[in-house]
């Protein structure tokens, strides 16, 4: 599905990715974890073609993503910070994205689920952070694409929306999709993820399921296991 | 690309500033015509306004639109759309909506005044063509500046400096160099120097067409002597087209390499 080989990227002098090798072939939920500044968002943006890598191979479904834009039709993406054009109305934005993708989306079901009906005619600039994140989720999840990338999906959501989000992600997983998630909320990751990819200083430091992580770090607590990974590196 | 162009265009058409710009030209055109009662004088006055104001509005609007639509751009980048389509589409959206304000704003009073029965229609047409060229050129330059500068304040400063340089400083330097080197033959130098400034180029283009030798100035006179009116017009139109094409190509090139 996603094949990454020796991916390097630096911003000015700051080397963010230092040779990432990663193969994602399995279906299910893969959590990309790592401390702040470890390159999670850069990695995701490289997969999406928003960040152009300095060197390395990156292919999605067997085709290189260089000078290619159509492969993004296979990917649904939820950006970390929900920034939208402030003078557009919610329904105009949804209609626009559907038009740009040239595909029908199941926006109605998601709008109902997140109770967004009262906000449809409001301008995006006037929405609260949590409501914006819900719109963000609708936009990201309304298309039925085989790969879903969620960058910090839980930010700003209330408990009910969070439950809905977990249900939605599980539904997509049952449909046999590959779902990449980054999150700092360990309980969320532990509950949802089938596999963990741990990034540290621009490289993949650990890849495997939660059980393997726990046995490698000799802990029973997931949060503790992640912390151990970090301290092992420092020791 | 057409879809992006459509959305940018309608986004701008709904904005208050497009109307202010349109109303300004409507007012200017009407005042000039109905107070002056002379089409060709009005065209000359308009030329002076257009060669200064259009570049200013083009650069400011271009930079402003780019920075304001940053979020929109990031949303688009994750969609299956080519990068070049996104940026060229947005650029055309800005440039075309500005050109439309200019053409409609000036066209209405002139049409009401009876332009279509007069001989001045070609002069006026050329004025609009030049205005459109200047909009396309300076919006493209503004997009270039914005693409190279993440920092808004820097981008705006460079944009204003660019305008100031092209509209005011360039002529000053040009004049000073003519004075300093007056004992040398300056014909080819001044023609070359004119080609490097689209504002000068448009001024000469209009004056050549109007055939007012008193207003031509040194460069204009050299231009006319060198190329003759017909060929001079052609050369300046080609040079203006190059001024559009090169910055647009650079938008295309730069946008493919940029990180977001």
UniProtKB/TrEMBL annotation, chain A:
CDD domains: ABC_DR_subfamily_A (cd03230). Keywords: ATP-binding, Nucleotide-binding, Transport. The keyword Protein transport does not apply. Residues 2-226 form the ABC transporter domain. It holds the Pfam family ABC_tran. PROSITE patterns: ABC_TRANSPORTER_2. One of its GO terms (molecular function) is ATP hydrolysis activity. PANTHER family: ABC TRANSPORTER ATP-BINDING PROTEIN ALBC-RELATED. This is Cu-processing system ATP-binding protein.
TrEMBL record, chain B:
It comes from Winogradskyella jejuensis. The keyword Membrane applies. The lineage of its organism: Bacteria, Pseudomonadati, Bacteroidota, Flavobacteriia, Flavobacteriales. This is Cu-processing system permease protein. The chain crosses the membrane at residues 20-36, 42-67, 88-112, 124-148, 160-184, 230-252. It comes from the Bacteria. Keywords: Membrane, Transmembrane, Transmembrane helix.
